[in-house]
């Protein structure tokens, strides 16, 4: 499975919208993720005891969401070379696995991404589908790294 050049371009164009407010979109994405998966708060010790409704005003939460969105932007830039984008994600797995973060946590967040971008990030149905293909194309890289 892979992305067509047109799909890569559509994702990159969509991410330009996201890039205009990385913090805002990152906060919304993480609120949706943590709202759907409240047990995953334990993987974020810097804000795990912050009430859900107070997360956006928490500096550690804001720092985390911004780091994730900035990294996502770097992956998006490299989607034309899936091996390079996949290698970036494998490096991210190396830093997360020792903290007992599993593929399941990544999957829960990445599964939300296409629909979130369609609802919040002005992605059309075709662009959301391209995001789905990107996620499906990149997950094997991550799974392979978790398996090591």
TrEMBL record:
CDD domains: Mb-like. This is Globin domain-containing protein. Signal peptide: none annotated. It comes from the Eukaryota. Belongs to the globin family. Keywords: Heme, Iron, Metal-binding, Oxygen transport, Transport. Residues 2-147 form the Globin domain. GO terms for molecular function: heme binding; metal ion binding; oxygen binding; oxygen carrier activity. Transmembrane segments: none annotated. The keyword Metal-binding applies. SUPFAM superfamilies: Globin-like (SSF46458). The keyword Transport applies.
